[in-house]
């Protein structure tokens, strides 16, 4: 009887244990190229550059993620955190900065990100090294080149080029292997296209790492850009023909990108995001040549 009861307990308890494990954050720190590492927390990524003169970190992501990362750094590296750089202002990437920062740490952000974090009273470590266009941070023989490409996602979103490992890091406005997030909340589709074109015309990178999605090559980033351009072009053309959002969501398919993650769920939402931008920012519906089935009566 004891054996039967024990078996039944394990059998019925197993689903809850499995469900709990399935919801556990997937924390890991993996070496990518040279002294550059990627920190993963579930579906989020940030970066680490390790040198003999200290560590350069990017987004802490969350307090829980930052606590795990701090413990991992203390175990694997005998170096202080010299710099913590925020990719942009969004709270799902910058929270937990106070857990990683110490008196030896300089917090970095673009001026628009720093301004927004202050104005909205975000409870994280506030930036103290603030830049406008570009910034180069050197640690020993390594460096990180931070650059602002204009509006694209949130406020003050920048690229970070880790050298000499030659790894480019961008959060949110370039995502490989997946469609952009839902209906593009906080995104500027014009800026996403312009900024992605810009990074492709600059110094070639050996590896791309995003704040979400997979790593990849320059060719992968170019394909992502082609998706943005195809999406934008299809929505713009439809709006100029006077088609409603509902019609465009039903008609626009872009089958060449069917292999991308979330294609089925998010393509109609991506269409809505571009439609909203053209309506709100470009006032497209106020043009006589775009009035059609959903024009004002």
How many domains comprise the coordinates?
A: 1
Give the CATH architecture.
4-Layer Sandwich
Q: Quote the distance from N terminus to C terminus.
A: 77 Å
CATH class: Alpha Beta
> CATH-wise, what's the superfamily?
Ribonuclease Z/Hydroxyacylglutathione hydrolase-like
Content-based structural category: alpha/beta
* Secondary structure tally: strands: 12
User: What is the name of the CATH topology?
Assistant: Metallo-beta-lactamase, Chain A
Strand content: 15-25%
| Mean pLDDT, all residues | 91
Pfam families: Lactamase_B (PF00753)
Protein name: Metallo-beta-lactamase superfamily protein
Signal peptide: 1-21
Domain Metallo-beta-lactamase: 43-212
Describe the protein in words:
The N and C termini lie far apart (77 Å). α6 (189-201) packs antiparallel against α7. It is elongated and about 65 Å long. The protein has helices spanning 2-22, 63-76, 91-94, 97-100, 111-119, 189-201, 218-240, 245-251, 263-280, and strands at residues 27-33, 36-41, 44-51, 54-57, 81-85, 106-110, 129-131, 134-139, 142-148, 158-163, 167-170, 207-210. The protein has a single domain, classed as 4-Layer Sandwich (Metallo-beta-lactamase, Chain A), CATH 3.60.15. With 297 residues, it is α/β, with parallel strands linked by helices.
